[in-house]
Amino acid sequence: MIALPYIIRPASAADAAACAGLYAPYTRTLITFESPAPDAAEMARRIAETMENYPWLVCERDGEVLGYAYAHRFRTRAAYDWDAELSIYLRQGCGGRGIGGALYTAVLELLREMRYVNAYGTVSVPNQPSERLHEKCGFKRVCVFENTGWKLGEWRGLAFYHLQLNEYAETPAPVVPFPELPAETAERICADCAARLNK
Question: How confident is the model over 67-106, as pLDDT tens digits?
Fold first, then answer.
């Protein structure tokens, strides 16, 4: 049987149940500080709200969502308009295939096109797979907030990672909301990153 190709594409409301199911096991671990797990309706709300301004991508194969990654606002004040924070989750057992790197790279490339200047990632530590992913994608660890989250009976630290996406212009141009990015640009970036998985 010929293996079907990986596809990376923008998420839609139809992906909410798959994303919720994929994410739920993480809420019972120390990898995310969130609990309880959001249901499909809440995930659909998050996807719709996020995609008003930022990219939310899924990676699928043979119709099954294997992972998702998205960007969201880093902080609320206007001075942070050129900053974005990223999140990524893979279906259990899908690590080590390059899916995480392809998804993260696609989101980062979209953010560059959207004129974002700084990308941030936060990792509950220790979490070697996520730490390696950020480093592989060019992020630098900035700091660790020790013992900042308490879950499942223990304290956990949070590492902050930073990546510069564009130049620090004297007067930065306004960012482009994701829905206003040309469709062909998003399609090209997603296709290029999926092609790395399909080699």
Answer: 999 999 999 999 999 999 999 999 999 999 999 999 999 9
Number of domains present in the structure of the chain: 1
Domain harbouring 61, CATH code: 3.40.630.30
DSSP assignment of the chain equals -PPPPEEEEE--GGGHHHHHHHHGGGGGSSS-S--S---HHHHHHHHHHHTTTS-EEEEEETTEEEEEEEEEES-SSGGGTTEEEEEEEE-TT-TTSSHHHHHHHHHHHHHHHTT--EEEEEEEES-HHHHHHHHHTT-EEEEEEEEEEEETTEEEEEEEEEEE-S---SSPPPPPPGGGS-HHHHHHHHHHHHHHHT-
What is the extent of the structural domain holding 140? 6-194
Q: Has residue 21 been placed in a domain? A: yes
> Does the model's pTM come out above 0.90?
yes
